[in-house]
Structure of Heavy metal-binding domain-containing protein:
Amino acid sequence: MRTPAKLAVFCVGLVAVFGASIWVGGMVGPANHGDASRSRTTEHAAEHGTAHGNPVRGVSLSEGDVMLTSVTAPTTVQTQGMLSFRIETLAGVAVTEFDTENTKQMHLIVVRSDGAEYRHEHPTMNTDGRWSIPWAWDTAGTYRIFADFVPSQTGAGTVLSDTVEVGGVFNPRTATNVSRISRVAGFTVSIDGSLQTRTASTLKATISRDGKPVTTLQPYLGSYGHLVVLRAGDLAYLHAHPDGPDARSGSTAGPEISFGTTPPTAGCYLLYLDFQVDGQVHTAQFVVDAGNPSAAHQ
Protein backbone atom coordinates (compact mmCIF):
# COMPACT_ATOMS: atom_id res chain seq x y z
CA MET A 1 0.00 0.00 0.00
CA ARG A 2 1.50 3.31 -1.07
CA THR A 3 1.42 6.26 1.32
CA PRO A 4 -0.03 9.34 -0.36
CA ALA A 5 1.23 11.82 2.20
CA LYS A 6 4.94 12.53 2.49
CA LEU A 7 5.68 13.24 6.16
CA ALA A 8 8.93 14.59 7.61
CA VAL A 9 9.51 12.01 10.26
CA PHE A 10 12.83 12.28 12.08
CA CYS A 11 13.20 13.75 15.55
CA VAL A 12 15.31 16.90 15.76
CA GLY A 13 19.00 16.27 15.18
CA LEU A 14 18.75 12.68 13.93
CA VAL A 15 18.15 13.51 10.27
CA ALA A 16 21.16 15.79 10.13
CA VAL A 17 23.47 13.18 11.65
CA PHE A 18 22.10 10.12 9.87
CA GLY A 19 21.55 11.89 6.55
CA ALA A 20 25.06 13.33 6.49
CA SER A 21 26.52 9.87 6.96
CA ILE A 22 24.78 8.62 3.78
CA TRP A 23 24.33 11.59 1.48
CA VAL A 24 27.16 13.67 0.09
CA GLY A 25 26.25 16.66 -2.07
CA GLY A 26 22.59 15.62 -2.23
CA MET A 27 23.26 13.14 -5.03
CA VAL A 28 22.95 9.37 -5.01
CA GLY A 29 23.76 6.78 -7.64
CA PRO A 30 23.01 3.09 -8.11
CA ALA A 31 25.03 0.90 -5.79
CA ASN A 32 26.37 -2.64 -6.01
CA HIS A 33 24.21 -5.04 -4.02
CA GLY A 34 26.98 -7.46 -3.28
CA ASP A 35 29.44 -7.27 -0.39
CA ALA A 36 28.94 -3.53 0.22
CA SER A 37 25.26 -3.90 1.15
CA ARG A 38 25.94 -7.00 3.21
CA SER A 39 28.72 -5.39 5.26
CA ARG A 40 26.76 -2.17 5.81
CA THR A 41 23.72 -3.98 7.18
CA THR A 42 25.84 -6.28 9.32
CA GLU A 43 27.60 -3.28 10.87
CA HIS A 44 24.22 -1.84 11.87
CA ALA A 45 23.32 -5.11 13.53
CA ALA A 46 26.57 -5.16 15.47
CA GLU A 47 26.22 -1.58 16.65
CA HIS A 48 22.56 -1.78 17.64
CA GLY A 49 22.21 -5.42 18.66
CA THR A 50 20.11 -6.34 21.67
CA ALA A 51 19.27 -3.93 24.45
CA HIS A 52 17.78 -4.91 27.82
CA GLY A 53 16.85 -8.35 26.48
CA ASN A 54 14.56 -7.02 23.73
CA PRO A 55 15.66 -8.14 20.26
CA VAL A 56 16.48 -5.50 17.68
CA ARG A 57 15.18 -6.79 14.36
CA GLY A 58 15.30 -5.79 10.73
CA VAL A 59 18.91 -4.61 10.70
CA SER A 60 20.47 -7.79 9.28
CA LEU A 61 20.44 -9.86 6.11
CA SER A 62 20.27 -13.10 8.09
CA GLU A 63 18.68 -14.51 11.22
CA GLY A 64 19.10 -18.04 12.45
CA ASP A 65 19.45 -20.32 9.42
CA VAL A 66 17.75 -18.04 6.87
CA MET A 67 18.94 -15.04 4.87
CA LEU A 68 17.63 -12.44 2.45
CA THR A 69 19.39 -12.67 -0.92
CA SER A 70 19.28 -11.58 -4.56
CA VAL A 71 17.46 -8.27 -3.95
CA THR A 72 16.85 -6.49 -7.25
CA ALA A 73 14.83 -3.36 -8.06
CA PRO A 74 14.84 -0.44 -10.50
CA THR A 75 17.79 1.87 -9.83
CA THR A 76 16.34 5.11 -11.17
CA VAL A 77 13.22 7.15 -10.52
CA GLN A 78 10.04 6.55 -12.57
CA THR A 79 11.40 3.38 -14.17
CA GLN A 80 8.91 0.53 -14.24
CA GLY A 81 10.36 -2.80 -13.20
CA MET A 82 10.19 -5.53 -10.58
CA LEU A 83 11.30 -5.58 -6.98
CA SER A 84 12.31 -9.13 -6.18
CA PHE A 85 14.26 -11.21 -3.67
CA ARG A 86 14.73 -14.71 -2.30
CA ILE A 87 14.78 -16.22 1.16
CA GLU A 88 17.43 -18.93 1.41
CA THR A 89 19.06 -21.08 4.04
CA LEU A 90 22.65 -20.27 4.92
CA ALA A 91 23.57 -23.21 2.68
CA GLY A 92 22.01 -21.41 -0.28
CA VAL A 93 18.84 -23.50 -0.59
CA ALA A 94 15.65 -21.58 -1.42
CA VAL A 95 13.04 -21.47 1.33
CA THR A 96 9.63 -22.05 -0.25
CA GLU A 97 7.35 -22.98 2.65
CA PHE A 98 5.97 -20.17 4.80
CA ASP A 99 3.23 -19.91 7.40
CA THR A 100 0.44 -17.38 6.98
CA GLU A 101 0.82 -14.44 9.37
CA ASN A 102 -1.70 -11.60 9.41
CA THR A 103 -3.42 -13.21 6.38
CA LYS A 104 -0.23 -13.15 4.23
CA GLN A 105 2.87 -15.30 3.83
CA MET A 106 5.14 -12.33 3.10
CA HIS A 107 4.97 -8.71 4.21
CA LEU A 108 7.22 -6.33 2.29
CA ILE A 109 7.91 -3.01 4.02
CA VAL A 110 9.84 -0.34 2.11
CA VAL A 111 10.86 3.05 3.52
CA ARG A 112 13.42 5.68 2.59
CA SER A 113 16.31 6.35 4.97
CA ASP A 114 14.72 9.59 6.23
CA GLY A 115 11.48 7.78 7.08
CA ALA A 116 9.51 9.08 4.09
CA GLU A 117 8.03 7.16 1.13
CA TYR A 118 6.68 4.31 3.25
CA ARG A 119 5.03 1.38 1.49
CA HIS A 120 3.59 -1.92 2.71
CA GLU A 121 3.07 -4.52 -0.01
CA HIS A 122 2.59 -8.26 -0.49
CA PRO A 123 4.67 -9.85 -3.27
CA THR A 124 4.04 -13.26 -4.77
CA MET A 125 6.44 -16.21 -4.91
CA ASN A 126 7.24 -18.34 -7.96
CA THR A 127 8.15 -22.02 -7.92
CA ASP A 128 11.86 -21.23 -7.53
CA GLY A 129 11.27 -19.30 -4.32
CA ARG A 130 11.68 -15.80 -5.77
CA TRP A 131 9.29 -13.19 -4.40
CA SER A 132 8.44 -10.33 -6.76
CA ILE A 133 6.11 -7.40 -7.29
CA PRO A 134 5.86 -4.68 -9.99
CA TRP A 135 7.71 -1.60 -8.78
CA ALA A 136 8.65 2.01 -9.56
CA TRP A 137 10.24 4.69 -7.38
CA ASP A 138 8.80 8.19 -7.05
CA THR A 139 11.92 9.76 -5.53
CA ALA A 140 15.65 9.12 -5.27
CA GLY A 141 17.38 7.97 -2.10
CA THR A 142 18.52 5.02 -0.07
CA TYR A 143 15.65 2.67 0.73
CA ARG A 144 15.41 -0.07 3.34
CA ILE A 145 13.69 -3.25 2.16
CA PHE A 146 12.16 -5.35 4.97
CA ALA A 147 10.94 -8.92 4.50
CA ASP A 148 8.65 -9.98 7.36
CA PHE A 149 7.70 -13.68 7.32
CA VAL A 150 7.42 -16.97 9.20
CA PRO A 151 9.36 -19.96 7.78
CA SER A 152 7.28 -23.10 8.20
CA GLN A 153 10.32 -25.10 9.28
CA THR A 154 10.86 -23.00 12.41
CA GLY A 155 7.51 -21.28 12.95
CA ALA A 156 9.43 -18.24 14.18
CA GLY A 157 8.60 -14.72 13.03
CA THR A 158 11.56 -13.33 11.09
CA VAL A 159 12.41 -9.85 9.79
CA LEU A 160 15.36 -9.41 7.40
CA SER A 161 16.43 -6.32 5.49
CA ASP A 162 18.71 -4.93 2.79
CA THR A 163 19.15 -1.54 1.14
CA VAL A 164 18.52 -0.31 -2.40
CA GLU A 165 20.05 2.85 -3.86
CA VAL A 166 17.86 4.84 -6.27
CA GLY A 167 19.80 7.33 -8.37
CA GLY A 168 18.96 11.01 -8.62
CA VAL A 169 18.87 14.20 -6.60
CA PHE A 170 17.78 13.52 -3.04
CA ASN A 171 15.80 16.11 -1.07
CA PRO A 172 15.69 14.96 2.56
CA ARG A 173 12.70 15.88 4.69
CA THR A 174 13.12 18.62 7.25
CA ALA A 175 13.55 17.29 10.79
CA THR A 176 10.47 17.64 12.97
CA ASN A 177 9.51 17.31 16.60
CA VAL A 178 7.33 14.58 18.05
CA SER A 179 4.08 14.31 16.08
CA ARG A 180 1.07 12.45 17.50
CA ILE A 181 -1.59 13.67 15.06
CA SER A 182 -1.73 12.63 11.40
CA ARG A 183 -4.13 13.84 8.72
CA VAL A 184 -4.62 11.68 5.66
CA ALA A 185 -7.39 11.58 3.01
CA GLY A 186 -9.81 13.56 5.20
CA PHE A 187 -9.17 11.46 8.31
CA THR A 188 -7.61 12.77 11.51
CA VAL A 189 -5.72 10.11 13.45
CA SER A 190 -4.23 10.66 16.89
CA ILE A 191 -2.02 8.31 18.87
CA ASP A 192 -1.97 8.22 22.67
CA GLY A 193 0.09 6.33 25.21
CA SER A 194 3.76 6.30 26.13
CA LEU A 195 6.60 4.13 24.88
CA GLN A 196 8.83 2.80 27.64
CA THR A 197 11.87 0.55 27.28
CA ARG A 198 12.08 -2.79 29.08
CA THR A 199 8.31 -2.90 29.57
CA ALA A 200 5.24 -3.59 27.47
CA SER A 201 3.81 -0.33 26.15
CA THR A 202 0.29 0.26 24.87
CA LEU A 203 -0.50 2.76 22.12
CA LYS A 204 -4.06 3.74 21.21
CA ALA A 205 -4.97 5.22 17.84
CA THR A 206 -8.23 7.18 17.49
CA ILE A 207 -9.65 7.89 14.03
CA SER A 208 -12.15 10.61 13.13
CA ARG A 209 -13.45 12.29 9.98
CA ASP A 210 -15.07 15.75 9.88
CA GLY A 211 -14.91 15.84 13.66
CA LYS A 212 -16.91 12.62 14.06
CA PRO A 213 -15.54 9.26 15.28
CA VAL A 214 -15.04 6.67 12.57
CA THR A 215 -16.82 3.44 13.52
CA THR A 216 -16.62 1.77 10.10
CA LEU A 217 -13.05 0.45 10.22
CA GLN A 218 -12.85 -2.71 8.14
CA PRO A 219 -10.61 -5.73 8.71
CA TYR A 220 -7.14 -5.32 7.21
CA LEU A 221 -4.58 -8.13 7.51
CA GLY A 222 -6.76 -9.86 10.09
CA SER A 223 -7.27 -6.87 12.39
CA TYR A 224 -8.68 -3.35 12.27
CA GLY A 225 -5.25 -1.81 11.87
CA HIS A 226 -1.63 -2.70 11.23
CA LEU A 227 1.16 -0.77 12.97
CA VAL A 228 4.83 -0.76 11.93
CA VAL A 229 7.31 0.84 14.32
CA LEU A 230 10.82 1.78 13.16
CA ARG A 231 13.61 3.24 15.28
CA ALA A 232 14.87 6.52 13.79
CA GLY A 233 18.43 6.36 12.52
CA ASP A 234 19.03 2.65 11.90
CA LEU A 235 15.34 1.85 11.14
CA ALA A 236 15.32 -1.15 13.48
CA TYR A 237 11.96 -2.91 13.12
CA LEU A 238 9.53 -3.53 15.98
CA HIS A 239 6.45 -5.71 15.99
CA ALA A 240 3.32 -4.00 17.31
CA HIS A 241 0.58 -6.45 18.16
CA PRO A 242 -3.08 -5.31 17.98
CA ASP A 243 -5.05 -5.90 21.16
CA GLY A 244 -8.28 -7.86 21.13
CA PRO A 245 -9.56 -10.74 18.98
CA ASP A 246 -8.98 -11.07 15.25
CA ALA A 247 -11.31 -9.02 13.07
CA ARG A 248 -14.07 -11.05 11.45
CA SER A 249 -14.75 -10.69 7.75
CA GLY A 250 -17.61 -8.27 7.13
CA SER A 251 -17.39 -6.72 10.60
CA THR A 252 -16.59 -3.09 11.43
CA ALA A 253 -15.12 -1.32 14.46
CA GLY A 254 -13.69 1.98 15.66
CA PRO A 255 -12.88 4.66 16.38
CA GLU A 256 -10.06 3.25 18.57
CA ILE A 257 -7.37 0.63 17.87
CA SER A 258 -4.85 -0.42 20.53
CA PHE A 259 -1.42 -1.98 20.04
CA GLY A 260 1.25 -3.39 22.31
CA THR A 261 4.99 -3.15 21.72
CA THR A 262 8.28 -3.00 23.63
CA PRO A 263 10.93 -0.60 22.29
CA PRO A 264 14.47 -1.93 22.85
CA THR A 265 16.08 1.45 23.52
CA ALA A 266 15.12 5.00 24.39
CA GLY A 267 14.92 7.47 21.52
CA CYS A 268 12.81 8.48 18.56
CA TYR A 269 10.49 6.05 16.78
CA LEU A 270 8.59 6.35 13.50
CA LEU A 271 5.10 4.87 13.47
CA TYR A 272 3.06 3.88 10.40
CA LEU A 273 -0.57 2.88 10.94
CA ASP A 274 -2.47 1.20 8.09
CA PHE A 275 -6.27 1.17 8.40
CA GLN A 276 -9.10 0.47 5.97
CA VAL A 277 -12.39 2.31 5.41
CA ASP A 278 -14.77 1.75 2.47
CA GLY A 279 -12.32 -0.70 0.91
CA GLN A 280 -9.47 1.82 0.81
CA VAL A 281 -6.31 1.43 2.90
CA HIS A 282 -4.78 4.62 4.34
CA THR A 283 -1.55 5.19 6.24
CA ALA A 284 -1.21 7.58 9.18
CA GLN A 285 2.34 8.49 10.23
CA PHE A 286 3.62 9.59 13.64
CA VAL A 287 6.83 10.39 15.51
CA VAL A 288 6.97 9.25 19.16
CA ASP A 289 9.76 9.36 21.75
CA ALA A 290 10.49 6.31 23.90
CA GLY A 291 11.88 6.85 27.38
CA ASN A 292 13.38 4.72 30.11
CA PRO A 293 11.05 3.61 32.93
CA SER A 294 10.99 5.82 35.99
CA ALA A 295 13.19 4.86 38.90
CA ALA A 296 10.10 3.59 40.72
CA HIS A 297 9.62 0.91 38.06
CA GLN A 298 13.24 -0.12 37.63
